[in-house]
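With this grant's support, we have settled on a layout for protein records. One resulting record is reproduced below.
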Amino acid sequence: MMFGLAKRKLESTHLWRIAKRMPKGTLLHCHLGAMVEVDWLFERILAVEGMHVCSSEALDTEAARVRAVVLFKYITPKPGSSHVSIWSSEYQPDTYVPAAEAADAFPSTGRQGFVSWLYDRSVISELMYLAHRLPGRGRTCRIQGSITVLP
């Protein structure tokens, strides 16, 4: 259903026109890192007022930051509203907080650490891709975990 709503917009993009000219099966081999400049994407997420982030659980531990599902959404900003930090144990799951605030409050390393954390969750590094110690199933799980960050 959602694809039907987005199809017209997708087909109007420059990227779609490129993919359309490629051999059959191209879309099966399109990877986030090859299709989107993720540094630019993360920069935009933090620059646009109204971009919010939520998590399936409080991101107060390293283990939680690895396993949680993290989503972004644009929500019209409400002046004067206060939020519990997504990095705090008091955070209520699936509660949206401003992305820029979450980035600035990232434990120990602030905004730069937040962007690095997002990058690690969203992009399969060359080392991860080439890792022979990770069985195929484990690699697939890692890729699926990355995909949920940027739905």
